[in-house]
């Protein structure tokens, strides 16, 4: 009877001890997200998801690089327009030659003198020329034979300043094809920019909500560690009073070590994700705190809706389509080789230095070139360009199939996380009731402290899994919208009527 009374007294003391000190500590882990958010607000700058998207799509180096590439493509398109315009060049030339350009007629002196003498003699004999005139002509002829019969056509040193102009008239369609190709290149770069932006938004969602998740996990681990630490202090006191077995105290110590290790790992993960988010936002100095809650959408559209979006908006599909158009322009360029090339040209000088007057001061004309035969080069190039079109057509077909499969895969992943979320959510009520039952049993002496800690950890695990499933759902939705080519619509999904905001319970 005495032993029974002592046992009841111990259980009464144990119940009073735990009800006064332990019970409240165990439920610290079940604090709401509001308390977590209040703590976080004191440690950093609140940042909504819309603000994060605006910062990332403005400051991220990948976005800036795509903008510069787009501007370069625009300038290339503008340059292609100039192919239709005349080309005007200013020309300045100075030449110094080894000798003058001259006509040397000295070798003609003797035959010319002989022929002239014969003519004079014939004229005198026939009476056409008088003796007096004949003498005068002979004197003149003799004087001329003594001269240098070299005529300078151009001085060895000369120069001029002028201009020249060329104007394409017809190049077989090559200019039009080049302009279309430049516009296609500009559109391709623009689609690449959309692709970069969509990928960046998916990355941002993953890191933004990843930071929110990591912060909540850290808080949970901290609350668990604090609860077990207080539990350990109580267990030590109870063991000293003979109210708790040594094995139970040792178990609590083991769980304390595990809780501290889990907390350290969670803090390291939080630091890593903070750095990752700052990298996406192109910021290294601001400690951001997510202010937009995670969410799940209860009435999501069917998979065909997203496949339709992808076929119209996916930047990769658009790029393949543009690649096909570019290949078709390549066919037109090669076909231009079968047509004549007609160019107008002109030129003139405005200043001459020792340039002979024999040369004209200006000239205009039209040039025509036509390739008759070049060893079948143009034929083979034309055939190759046609094959490139067929190749791109096959790639286009495969790309549509691949994107369709990707959309369906991401859609199913999203639904899977949605179902898991609801499954975990349904188990929270059971975990809460189980913890209450274990706590009551422990206070009555019907359960051990290890059972109580296990129940406590299980509830924390289930609640953490709920947030993790919401996080996985949002990341999958972001990737689905990226595949559909409409990543900018992600923030609007969080504001839908059927979107449930998920907070830590």
Short description:
The chain is α+β, with helices and mostly antiparallel strands and 505 residues long. The protein is built from 13 helices and ten strands. The strands form four sheets. Strands 2-5-8-9 form a four-stranded antiparallel β-sheet, with no helix packed on it.
Give the key terms:
13 helices, 505 residues, 2 domains, 4-stranded antiparallel beta sheet, Outer membrane efflux proteins (OEP), alpha+beta, 10 strands, rod-shaped, 13% strand
Describe this structure as you would to a colleague.
By secondary structure, the chain is α+β, with helices and mostly antiparallel strands. It folds into 2 domains: 2-87 and 171-502, Up-down Bundle (Outer membrane efflux proteins (OEP)), CATH 1.20.1600; 106-148. It is built from 13 helices and 10 strands. The chain has a 4-stranded antiparallel beta sheet, with no helix packed on it. A hairpin with an 8-residue loop joins strand 8 (341-353) and strand 9. Helix 7 packs antiparallel against helix 12. The longest helix is centred in the middle third of the chain and has 67 residues, at 174-240. The chain starts with a helix and ends with a strand.
Radius of gyration: 47 Å
Principal-axes geometry comes out as rod-shaped
CATH topology of the largest domain: Outer membrane efflux proteins (OEP)
- What's the architecture of the largest domain, going by CATH? Up-down Bundle
Q: How many structural domains are formed by the residues? A: 2
The CATH class name of the largest domain reads Mainly Alpha
